Amino acid sequence: MPELTFQNPVFCVYAIAAALMALKLMGQGWITVVQMLTNNGGFLNPEDKAKGLANPNPSEDQLAPVEAVQRSRRMQLNDLENIPAFWLVGLLFVLTGPALLLTQIFMYGFVATRALHFWAYSTAQSHEVRATFYTFGSLIVMAMAVMVLLKAF
Question: What ranges do the domains of the chain cover?
């Protein structure tokens, strides 16, 4: 499949966007860990409060919710609801042989909406601001999905 090689500039755009989204998704997990360690709490499981190198002074309070940790977890769940659909539909979109400019607009547009969504969520912007970035990202994925369907039929 020549469409899925790095000689295809459309695939290169997808590969860059997909890799950036993988870094975002995996990085959010690390942000959650940093929040737990910084706040010395927000742990989920009873065994998380066991004494160890990462937790030299365990306490029952460490299982209590901590807003910074909860916010980071909600951000990761939101990524898990959005990024896998982008990966799948984006790859199928590449197989339709789209124009490079359209691919760049869709792929980098999605990356930008996720970056802006991250900013809005991490700085506690209003729901409307956060939802605006989500909406644009979801519309991009939906547009690519429609184009895939049109090509398939």
Answer: 2-152
Cα separation, 13 vs 86, in Å, equals 13
Cα separation of the two ends of the chain: 20
Q: Which residue has the tokens 């090689």?
A: 5
Residue 63: closest CA among 36, 42, 47: 42
What does residue 29 show for φ and ψ, rounded to 5 degrees?
Answer: -60, -40
**pLDDT higher for 58 or 145?**
145
Q: What does the alpha-carbon distance between residue 9 and residue 20 come to, in Å, rounded to a whole number? A: 17
d(CA 95, CA 148): 8
CATH number of 2-152: 1.20.120.550
Question: Does residue 1 register a pLDDT over 80?
Answer: no
- Buried b or exposed e, range 13-30, using 16+ CB within 10 angstroms: bbbebbebbeebbeebee
pLDDT 10s digits, 139-153:
999 999 999 999 999
Closest to 77 in 3D by CA, of 40, 44, 106, 47: 44
Tokens at 42, concatenated: 């927000």
